[in-house]
Give the backbone structure.
Amino acid sequence: MEEKEKRTEIGELGEFGLIDKLTAQFESYQPGTVKGVGDDAAVIKGGGLYTVVSTDLLLEGIHFDLMYTPLKHLGYKAVVVNLSDIYAMNATPGQVTVSIGLSSRFSLEAVEELYAGIKAACDYYKVDLVGGDTASSQQGLVISVTAVGQVAPAKITYRSGAKVGDIICVTGNLGAAYLGLQILEREKQVYLSEPDTQPDLEDQQYIIGRQLKPEARNDMVKYLAKSKVVPTAMIDVSDGLASDLMHICKQSNVGAFVEESGVPIHPEAQQMALKFQLDPITCALSGGEDYELLFTIDPKDLPEVRLLPDIYIMGELTDRDQGIKLHTKGGNIHDIKAQGWRHF
Amino acid sequence: MEEKEKRTEIGELGEFGLIDKLTAQFESYQPGTVKGVGDDAAVIKGGGLYTVVSTDLLLEGIHFDLMYTPLKHLGYKAVVVNLSDIYAMNATPGQVTVSIGLSSRFSLEAVEELYAGIKAACDYYKVDLVGGDTASSQQGLVISVTAVGQVAPAKITYRSGAKVGDIICVTGNLGAAYLGLQILEREKQVYLSEPDTQPDLEDQQYIIGRQLKPEARNDMVKYLAKSKVVPTAMIDVSDGLASDLMHICKQSNVGAFVEESGVPIHPEAQQMALKFQLDPITCALSGGEDYELLFTIDPKDLPEVRLLPDIYIMGELTDRDQGIKLHTKGGNIHDIKAQGWRHF
């Protein structure tokens, strides 16, 4: 970098100084937030609703690579992936807590970048940061986010409510985030071997954006409410369509029949898969990190759902004995195998 | 160790297999737990109460040392320190989520030990494990716990509600956990230099237990409810009495006058402090990790509180301008300085 950036050591502020500094800029959006940061616990008003709680642990070197992940994007994504879990319950998130562990390699300016991303997500999704913890770590960056939301009991969607004959729907498109990661990993390898090379991102802003700055489908929860449709089951596509569909099938005790032609793939993802000599449908099935919503509906709700934007009909649920099958465009029928998340 | 212990690699199970195995043994205590582990989020029933949420991040090498911390104790303590924050709001915890990051050094048997401790805490405090996340880590063990509780709006106790003239109370005794840590650190150094030496724990089971297996004061929340006393402010003693009292004073905009003779110190802690050539009152003020409750009450409630067991009257709140003072047994008056937590 040409310009010398300012570097403030975190030790200069201490824990409480750091928390005060990082959280001072967060304002409150939610009338239900009675007490946010600064006490032993956050306080949230109830009122006949169910409270839903989701949590994720993100570790440097496992879940993210700071070589190509800007800290601001990372902060944004850390919040978004948790909100996505709340939306997948058909609930509305209201609050998040964020805990971070920092090694001495991180300056105050770096942590402020991370929190600028966390704040951008809070502002966009209108959720309140209400607590957390900061600690030093011996190595690397650790981020733990917990999201809290609410939903009327009659509207909640579990993974377990689907029935044989229900229609399988998915929002948006699948596989692009995985291909974005492949591009970033490729450019990292190029950079490591030839540090003077300029990155060749091939104008793949859409695909790379899907990896670095995903959004959660808050719009779908609103659309479904407006059309008075409650999915029979819902999950967010984080591990990959195959793995996440398998969760619904396992917990609902059903099988599934998916039409390849019904699986939405973005044209840029399609093209990039072929460049990487990957099968686009495999990227869509096993890629993960799409943060789209996979849900099933009773056939009677199909006319309503057809009117909603950005929802694709992918197939239907079958008897458990039929397994989980893909009907390819070529007319063959394959088993869908979950690959999903394999950090261990 | 003489016997060869069984070692199962976590990779053999995969993420979902690991979660299933670790959480299968947890039963539900809380009628409010609608949905626990196994969906995108946990679901908790409300009903006119405030929901309180607290979270902690524990990192190996910073917050705990596995050389002298049995994994079962660590799991227990990780839950207890979060429950303590919920009790400090005068609330009752109902649910916890636990996320863990594991390096390849940990076997399934080791993680099961950790979860045995988590389960022991859930069983003792009657809280439900309702979610979490597991991930591999590049180095060391990472534990993130979030606790959720509920409280009637009229009973909630913030750090900010104390007034000049309120009486300062504390439960149990202070400083022992810090001295337990000193013993464990000393024995670690002895072991590192002479591995054949037997540990000399000097029958200090009480002190060491305060460090390795602290309990949260769930009894106090019940006592206070029974005697219909709502403290004006409350905090749990995690960073150290001085630091935690300072939080109340800062947020309530008051000063404090503490009698040294009112600060409860266990006889074993007293004795051990002198052996380490430390001032017992300094250990009590700055030690931390006691997980006792520090609270303030309106003077009119004093007769009721005097009848409750294991509560000590330590002093009273003064004007902010008076600062935070200690009246020593020798008759001197000193400023109380917060040292508290200094991981950075």
About this structure: Residues 189 and 195 of chain A are 10 Å apart (CA to CA). The first helix of chain A runs from residue 14 to 23. Chain A touches chain B through 77 residues (CB under 8 Å).
